[in-house]
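Collaborator request, handled under Task 6.
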Amino acid sequence: MNLQVKGRNLVLPEATSKYAEEKIGRLGKYLADGSRCEVEIWTEKNPSISDNQVVEATIFTKGPVIRAREASPDVRASIDLVFEKLERQVKKYRHKLVSHQGPAKEAFAAEGFAVPAETEAVEEEPQLPRIVKTKQFMVKPMTPEEAALQLELVGHDFFVFTNSESNETAVVYRRRDGNYGLIEAQS
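Structure tokens returned to the collaborator:
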């Protein structure tokens, strides 16, 4: 795996760079040789943010792009959190490849993941989420404000509707801060 560690608007200390390379480099055993990983480290300048040491890592494989971002008061802790998140995602995707296509070596190589050794046991992961209920409903044309009102009335976290202004399908959702977000489809 090709690994690149860089700092955004700061010069990384050698120890931090080396720690990130060692920690994130462990993911190489799960990835094929053609994979590339970029790790970017920066410090948030806002004094009101206590978790100001941010680490973002992106793994480029032939298949999916895997990304993780974590922040904490300590840069090493942020690196550890990103590593754990990436490892979980890579293992989950590898498990998905094995369960859907069998342990075919071609499937792993085609997706950019290292071929598991014949003697290596695949860890039992919890069963992947599945669709257990299907609903159908009429998608009515309305404004985003009307959709937000409907969202409140139904008590769900999101509401699908046709935007009467653009005639496109859109989604209104409740954000953690109590406000609403709007997702619009692009053609």
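The cover message to the collaborator said: "The chain has two domains: 2-111, 141-184. The CA atoms of residues 95 and 125 lie 7 Å apart. Please let us know whether this matches your experimental observations."
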